[in-house]
Amino acid sequence: MGRRGLSTIAAVVLVSLAVGAASGQPLPRGVEAFGSQPAGGSASISIAAVPDYGYQPETIGNVPLNAIITVNFTDDDVLPHTFNISSREGFEIPTSYNAAQLNKLFSEYPALYAASVGYEGATSTGSFTSPSAPGWYEFLCNESGHFAEGMYGFIAFGEPVPSNLTLPHHGSEIPTTGSPLIAILGGVVIVVVVAGVVIWRRRRSAYRPPPELRH
Ligand SMILES: [Cu+2]
């Protein structure tokens, strides 16, 4: 590989690392807003429905136990959305669940909290009493088809959201959990692809490929 190819790759490495580092920061997928607050009393959480069938944040951890939780739910998208917290503790709802299966789940395990917003900029405020024992729960949007598109997340009371839960993947989203490691791995993938393209172009344009690149 020539000097030009190497310098191209070096530049891509730097740009990829910068993009990776930046992509982990502006929109954290989870918040741990209540770690310092004791059980009892009250607290508030804010969550938004965002374009591409998502929530921001996607995880909310360390919400105080046995407390009055005020929920501020905002529609930052153009579609109507809902925010329903399942009361089935420690259950990751299969992403294959259809509307009938979701209805059955929520009739057996009535929502801890349910809210809806109907248009861009709409807000909904309400409250519920949080569970008295530590645990995590899934929340989702039950507008037709939205769960299947990945409109769900997790909330944990009296503990952080477990790190092994599967967060949704949205079509245009760079998969990042905010972890620098994952961002760097993404950068490495970009570097490998670009290096492959550079090598392929050199092979294609060379009259005779150098011996080390022949099969
Ligand atoms: Cu929705």
Descriptive overview:
The chain is of the alpha/beta class. The protein folds into two domains: 3-23 and 178-213, no CATH class; 30-157, Cupredoxins -  blue copper proteins (Immunoglobulin-like, Sandwich), CATH 2.60.40.420. Helices cover 27% and strands 26% of the residues. It is built from three helices and ten strands; from the N terminus they run H-E-E-E-E-E-E-H-E-E-E-E-H. Strands 1-4-10-9-6-7 form a six-stranded mixed sheet, with no helix packed on it. The chain has a four-stranded mixed sheet with strand order 3-2-5-8, with no helix packed on it. Helix 1 packs antiparallel against helix 3. The radius of gyration is 23 Å and the shape is globular. Copper (II) ion (CU) binds at residues 49, 53, 81, 141, 143, 146, 151.
Features:
binds copper (II) ion, 4-stranded mixed β-sheet, 215 residues, Immunoglobulin-like, 6-stranded mixed β-sheet, alpha/beta
User: How many distinct folded domains?
Assistant: 2
CATH 2nd-level architecture of the largest domain: Sandwich
CATH topology name of the largest domain, in short, is Immunoglobulin-like
Shape: globular
Which hetero ligands occur in this complex?
A: copper (II) ion
Distance linking N and C termini: 16 Å
Strand proportion, as a percent range, falls in 25-35%
Number of helices: 3
Radius of gyration, CA atoms, in whole angstroms: 23 Å
Mean residue pLDDT: 79
Ranges where pLDDT stays below 50 over 5 or more residues in a row are 8-26, 172-178
Assigned CATH class of the largest domain:
Mainly Beta
Characterize the largest beta sheet: strand count, sense, and whether it forms a barrel.
6 strands, mixed
Helical content band = 25-40%
Structural class: alpha/beta
Counted beta strands: 10
Q: Any idea what the CATH superfamily of the largest domain is called? A: Cupredoxins -  blue copper proteins
Oligomeric state of this protein: single chain
